[in-house]
Amino acid sequence: MRTYLAVAMIGGRAANLITYNSMYPGPTITVKLGDTLRLHVVNMLPFTTERNILGFEENHTNLHTHGLHVSPMLPADNAALDIPAGSYFNYQYDLGHVYPGSLNIYHPH
Fold first, then answer.
1. Which residues, including other chains, have CB under 8 Å from residue 74's CB and lie 6 or more apart?
2. Is 97 inside any structural domain?
3. How many domains in the chain?
4. Does residue 106 sit in helix, strand or coil?
5. Residue 106 and residue 59: Cα distance in Å, rounded?
6. Domain carrying residue 89
7. Do 47 and 86 meet the contact criterion of CB atoms below 8 Å apart?
8. Which of 20, 70, 73, 104 qualifies as a FRET site for 97, CA 20 to 30 Å off?
């Protein structure tokens, strides 16, 4: 059984979202310049063999950032990383090259 968070969007339209920790938008992560950010991401999407429009199983995920000057190699920001349902990945981001006061975003792929 798939669970969603129903959210009213601009214009009164509703959307069913798969979210981080049932939050929309996802949690804010605050760090200091030069920190190493470590995130333990657990894929708790329910098992399914259904496929999306591109042919990929719908319950796979990962985490990807925009704006951070971090490595695209594991264990950091590899957008092609696949975390199947029931699995986890430990991300580690070296934030030594991030601009002070920058605003960055993250999302799943």
1. 81
2. yes
3. 1
4. strand
5. 18
6. 29-109
7. yes
8. 20
> Tens digit of pLDDT for each residue in 22-78?
777 888 888 888 899 999 999 988 888 888 888 878 888 899 999 888 888 889 888
Whether 4 maps to a domain, the answer reads no
The dihedral of CA 22, 24, 61, 50: what is its sign? Answer: positive
CATH of the domain at 56: 2.60.40.420
Q: Is residue 107 part of a domain?
A: yes
The residues, ordered by sequence, that sit 6+ positions from 54 with a Cβ below 8 Å of its Cβ are: none
Phi, psi for residue 72 in degrees, rounded to 5 = -85, 5
Tokens of 101: 């006061």
Q: Beta partners for 6?
A: 16
